[in-house]
Design a protein that fits this description.
There is one protein chain. By secondary structure, the protein is an alpha/beta fold. It has one domain (7-283): Divalent-metal-dependent TIM barrel enzymes (TIM Barrel, Alpha-Beta Barrel), CATH 3.20.20. Helix content is 38%, strand content 14%. The protein contains ten helices and eight strands.
Length: 285
């Protein structure tokens, strides 16, 4: 029977394996194009997703040890599979906030999963407001939505978001949608959702790896990026390798990050968060 390793043992192994030195230093090189002007308008962070099979505190430790100041909350080992979700209680959100504060990290993005819009529009709005409250407890800058794949729920889903944009703004955060398959797999589809919501507090969190992934490698994000001009508020730094793999350390796959970033900058993305979402599992112990 395999022995369970402690959080500290895992972190020590991660650093020894290169997460704190080799793999992460290659990420810094990949992201060097972001803050070339010297005034650092981009906040470079890392999501919890690479450590999703462990408690979220493992991810926080590894991210802080790797030198990041900014973190994105996403998947983790929990009942919901997420650090923060609609089902998170206020007490749980408060404890998570304390763990983040202990490590001197700032939350720039939270992916909180689905909202119960399938029950009713009202349930979707109530769930989203609860999710916003949980995110506010952690002090996040942006709530990342995954979109919806069911055409019947498209309007209720985005109506719920529209109804909550002002509430999120009052809590000091924006809301965004990313390319995530289904009805929001490409830049033009994401633009359509933003236009449907029609609120300045709702934008696009670009994901070049997903542009490749959901098109089976056929749509290059360099070509897709101009379709989101003026709407991008952040980016998941995610790479891709065929046939269907995004568990890739950025800079080692098909995404031409400098070219994608140049197109996004030309379209008005002059500041915001750039958050590493995935790493090659071989870069973890």
């Amino acid at each position: 029977m395999a022995r369970r390793i402690s959080r500290r043992e895992f972190l020590n192994q991660a650093v020894a394996a290169g997460v704190g030195a080799g793999a992460m230093s290659s990420l810094w090189q990949t992201l060097a194009w972001a803050n070339q002007t010297g005034d650092q308008p981009y906040l470079i962070g890392c999501y919890t997703r690479p450590w999703a099979q462990y408690d979220y505190r493992v991810a926080l430790d590894a991210i802080a040890e790797a030198g990041y100041r900014y973190v994105g909350l996403m998947t983790t080992k929990s009942a919901s599979g997420l650090v923060i979700s609609v089902s998170t209680t206020p007490d749980e959100a408060g404890r998570i906030a304390e763990e983040i504060k202990k490590r001197d990290l700032k939350v720039v993005s939270v992916y909180g999963g689905d909202i119960p819009v399938g029950k009713s529009l009202e349930a979707g709005i109530e769930g989203l407001r609860r999710l916003i409250d949980n995110c506010a407890a952690c002090g996040t800058m942006n709530l990342l939505m995954g979109g919806i794949g069911d055409p019947k729920l498209y309007e209720p889903y985005y109506k719920a978001i529209a109804e909550c944009c002002d509430y999120a703004a009052e809590k000091g955060m924006g809301i965004s949608v990313k390319p995530h398959g289904g009805l929001n797999a490409t830049g033009p589809q994401c633009r359509k959702t933003v236009e449907f919501v029609g609120h300045k507090n709702f934008g696009i969190w670009y994901d070049p790896g997903n542009i490749f992934y959901y098109s089976d490698g056929k749509l290059n994000p360099v070509d897709d990026a101009p379709s989101v001009d003026g709407l991008v508020v952040g980016m998941s730094v995610k790479d891709f390798k065929p046939p269907k793999n995004v568990d890739v350390t950025p800079g080692t796959g098909m995404v031409d990050f400098p070219a994608v970033f140049a197109r996004l900058q030309a379209g008005g993305f002059k500041k915001g968060a750039l958050v590493v979402e995935c790493l090659d599992p071989n870069d973890l112990p």
